[in-house]
Amino acid sequence: MAREDVVRYDVRNGVAWVTIDRPEARNALNKDVRRGLFDAVGRFNVDDSAKVMVLTGAGDKAFCAGGDLKEMADTALRVPPPDFLPQFGRNVQIDKPTIAAVNGVAFAGGFLLAQNCDLVLAAESARFAVTEVKVGRGSPWAAPLSWLVPPRVAMEILLTGDPLSAQRAYEVGLVNAVVPDSELAEAAQNLGERIAANAPLSVQASKRTVYLSAQHAMRDAFDEAERIWEPVYLSNDAQEGPAAFRDKRPPRWTGA
Questions:
Q1: What is the pTM of this model?
Q2: Is 253 within the bounds of a domain?
Q3: What domain range includes position 34?
Q4: What is the pLDDT of residues 2-39, one digit of tens each?
Q5: Rounded Cα distance, 200 and 237, in Å
Q6: Pair 151, 51 in one domain
Q7: Cβ–Cβ under 8 Å, residues 142 and 114
């Protein structure tokens, strides 16, 4: 199958859905899927009709089971190159918000994809695990994990390789909400539309602000936040918001 066949892209009311469509292999990350994900992210980045991206997997068994171990064995993969698969914020930049809609298992590379999204919604059937210790592989991409969850929880995840239930993942802060399996797509679409309805410049600056504390000391984070938000304050949208409130009408955002 070509990479455009195993990764689907479509936009619904401002929300771009990127779907790994390889359910017969539990949406494992073979070469075509990895390249397809890079293509989909590139498409999203230049798609003005898409304000938010939802990443999910086809079927009800797996969001993504991780790397394709058969392919790894056949190619004798050792150290994956930096561009082996998309790592949002590391080897590919996405300024607009991203949501992982996790159905079924999110193991290894699937955990990576969910971890790197800005928000995570989980179906009740979802399971999360960094399973590399069970197969002798590595997870250097898990470096941000102790910023997302308490360090002792990160230790448990990485040292045991055991899966977390959706409820446990919610309790430790790895996911934002758990919903019935049948409601996952609707919940992700609704969340995406709520974000897409907001002022786009403010949304993008908000995303950048959240990550500042992981990248800078506190004093430097404040200075960088001031730099990020100045063009938002100076934008036409910053005048449009108060004017719309005054005139009792919905705001008409231009992103400028």
A1: 0.90
A2: no
A3: 3-196
A4: 556 899 999 999 999 999 999 998 998 888 999 999 99
A5: 9
A6: yes
A7: no
Q: What is the pLDDT of residues 211-229, one digit of tens each?
A: 988 888 878 888 888 888 8
- Structure token digits, residue 35: 């390249």
Q: Which residue has the higher pLDDT, 150 or 76?
A: 150
Indicate if 181 and 208 belong to the same structural domain. Answer: no
Last residue within a domain, chosen from 196, 217, 236:
196
Q: Give pLDDT, residue 151.
A: 94
Instruction: Identify whether residues 150 and 210 lie together within a single domain.
Output: no
**Per residue in 52-96, pLDDT tens?**
999 999 998 999 997 766 766 656 667 777 788 899 988 999 999
Q: Which residues are paired to 57 by β-bridges?
A: 20
Chain centre distance of CA 47:
17
Three-state SS across the chain? CCHHHHEEEEEECCEEEEEECCHHHCCCECHHHHHHHHHHHHHHHHCCCCCEEEEEECCCCEEECCECHHHHHHHCCCCCCCCCCCCECCCECCCCCEEEEECCEEECHHHHHHHHCCEEEEECCCEEECCHHHHCCCCHHHCCHHHHCCHHHHHHHHHHCCCEEHHHHHHCCCCCEEECHHHHHHHHHHHHHHHHCCCHHHHHHHHHHHHHHHHCCHHHHHHHHHHHHHHHHCCHHHHHHHHHHHHCCCCCCCCC
